[in-house]
Model the fold of this input.
Amino acid sequence: MGDAAATANLAAAVGDVLPSILGRDGPRRYLLLVQQPAEARGSGGLPGNWGEIVADGGHLELVASGRISDLDDRMSPAGQRAVEAGPGHRALYGYTFQDQLWQNTTLDPDFTVAADIARQLWDQTGGSPLDGVLSVDPQAVAAVLTLVGSLDLSDGTVLGPDNAAEFLLHGQYLTLGDDADANSARVDRLGEAVDRAWARLTTGDLPGPRVIATTFGPVVEGRHLSFASFDEDEGVVLERLGLAGSVPRPERDGVGVVTFNLGQNKIDYFLERVTSYRARWDPLTGSVSGTYTVQLSNAAPAVGLPAPIIDYGGPVATDPGLAPGENFLQAYLYTALPPVAVRVDGELVMRQGGIDDRGWEVTVVAIRVPPGGSVIIEVDVSGAIAPDGAWTLDVVRQPAVNGDRLSAELEVVGGAAGLAVDGLEPGEGGTLRVERGLDGPIRVGVSAR
Done:
């Protein structure tokens, strides 16, 4: 009954804000960012294309679109732009003005933060004020094609619901050359696909709400589609719907990993991340200690693929000497408890550290993963949560090409008998454990009955 009431309340809230989002009370303007997770950023991937959407009286129109580099060309150089964000974001992502570049607006894993940075940069292009930001990636494009049908592009490419995600993530880089003209052609082809899909979506006949919800539900849960409104009431409803793409503040315990592609290529198509957390909790004192482990595996070959996928794609002057197929990335390791040691492949690289970012301790490590190889990062944590007889685990999730997996195991001092368990199952030696993919929100925990 409680769930039914909550669903009814949410439906009523959606009914209250949807008309205003669609321009009932006057035109609304939204920025569309098309992300490429094969070149990872915190909120998903490099935003390679943009669009400007106007909603007026329930009618949606894509009034402008282009390459993301077009927006940079309209502005003063990075370093002369004004971007305001919290101190945690600035310490983690604002170095050398990285978050002042349009291709890095999505560095932060919290899309509401990324959207606000995009809004600030948009204002500096001379664009009309924005009311929100919408983000889609190739999986979201594929979901749209499930509803509107296949697209015939001008170069003869046919994109449908079964091949769109794979083609946009990887296949398109196999069919054109390696030079600048080829790169421009790829960006333009993606822009054409988005323009045509949008036209179909807003002018064609669509199935009923149930089919639309079934189609987009997994895409939203996986954060492949996000929408942030700058209206406070609308933002609350979008948060409840899971559309806002925000990062939860850890209630008690928590972990997560975010990776940022430093090689300026599309090698993250081959990146797989498997994570685990082993913790020991004392319900009487609230003390918790544990180890968060992240295994980064790179299935990219060293030869046989075009340069945009496996070679360094940045300026020659900043080439770090990457070998073909080597994945060069920055790993942001989120823990709710203070880190006391960080090891990479067993070697101690940091005794303590962590930058406070909205309730999380974030440790940053630069990693090179060889072609066909793996790297293991371990973070030891130790601290205390409220001694109220409850332990919960929140997880920071990043939309990625290959979905992450997490296994968590909790040892309860004194045993788990008599505790109420949510989302955990009995493990070996009296522990509690969970193992699942991170294609949706996750919070597990135990508490006194």
Observations:
- The mean pLDDT is 91.
- DSSP finds ten helices and 22 strands in the chain.
- The CA atoms of residues 72 and 102 lie 6 Å apart.
